[in-house]
Amino acid sequence: MKKLLVAASLMLSSALTQASDISLWEKSTLNEIVKRGELQVCMEAGYMPFEMRNKKGNIVGFDVDMAKAMAKAMKVKLDLRNTAWDGIIPALLTAKCDIIMSGMTVTAERNLKVNFANPYIVVGQTILVRPDLADKISSYRDLNDPKYVVATKLGTTGDIATKKYIGKSNIRLFETESEGALEVVNGNAHAFVYDLPFNAIYSSQNSDKVVHLDDSFTYEPLGWAIRKGDPDFLNFLNNFLAQVKGDGTYDKIYSKWFASDDWLKSVQ
């Protein structure tokens, strides 16, 4: 009798587990994407070389090519949704897109609101300074003084890092990366703090107007963000990333955007 009860209990438990799994899959964003036939991606087109507008007005970049590869793997169409940075997480949480693929740094604060797939690249904060200050400023420590005006982008990890490590400086926040960097070019700021990829590209385009201190002073893994409570989608993303890194797809896309600057001539 006891064996029968145990067997019945195990069967019931298995049935409940299967029902729960089916329910999770039905609610999964991945299931919705497949049924819809379209992957909807939130990104802010203004972060070279991850996502930006080309001369034709199309959004291009490293994240865009990764999104294209992901949509291809899903066998669905791709819908890129340009979204202001300060509203990008709310857009995800209100289902205006399926995923954020926009050079977003994985932080504990953000992780309370969203789930991140495994990091797909690691960057850090670096500094652009005016050429006349290159012999006076060699690291972020030298800028931690009220006499220096330091620009960065509002609501980013550059904003956080500047306040944390260069808090004594006169900090000015801007809506876009380009606006902040332009303050240095125009002589209105002594330095600009932002992610290494953007600063490296910007300095190569303005080598006579800024000096790039390219030694990162923060560690920042970037990850794709999705809504919480979706293990199926998260599992797919981590496996997709492992696959493209293993089959050469990732290296090909990385080389296109980081090992070469040929794409610069096509960007506005």
H/E topology pattern:
HHEEEHEHEHEEEEHEHEHEEEHH
Shape, please?
Answer: globular
CATH domain class name of the largest domain: Alpha Beta
Mean pLDDT: 91
**Overall number of strands:** 14
CATH topology type of the largest domain: D-Maltodextrin-Binding Protein, domain 2
The biggest beta sheet reads: 5 strands, mixed
- Evaluate the radius of gyration: 22 Å
Instruction: Give the N-terminus to C-terminus distance in angstroms.
Output: 77 Å
* Uncertain stretches: none
Task: Output the structural class.
Answer: alpha/beta
CATH superfamily label of the largest domain:
Periplasmic binding protein-like II
Specify the number of helices.
10
Summarize the structure.
The chain is α/β, with parallel strands linked by helices and 268 residues long. 41% of the residues lie in helices and 19% in strands.
Could you explain the architecture of this structure?
This protein has 268 residues and is of the alpha/beta class. The chain has two domains: 26-122 and 221-266, D-Maltodextrin-Binding Protein, domain 2, CATH 3.40.190.10; 125-218, D-Maltodextrin-Binding Protein, domain 2 (3-Layer(aba) Sandwich). 41% of the residues lie in helices and 19% in strands. It contains ten helices and 14 strands. It has helices spanning 2-27, 29-36, 62-74, 88-93, 108-111, 157-165, 177-185, 196-205, 231-246, 249-258; strands spanning 38-43, 52-53, 59-60, 77-82, 99-100, 115-116, 121-123, 125-129, 149-153, 170-174, 191-195, 211-213, 220-222, 225-226. Strands 10-9-11-8-12 form a five-stranded mixed β-sheet, with helices on both faces. A hairpin with a 5-residue loop joins strand 2 and strand 3. The longest helix is centred in the first third of the chain and has 26 residues, at 2-27. It is globular, with a radius of gyration of 22 Å. The termini are far apart. The relative contact order is 0.16. The mean pLDDT is 91.
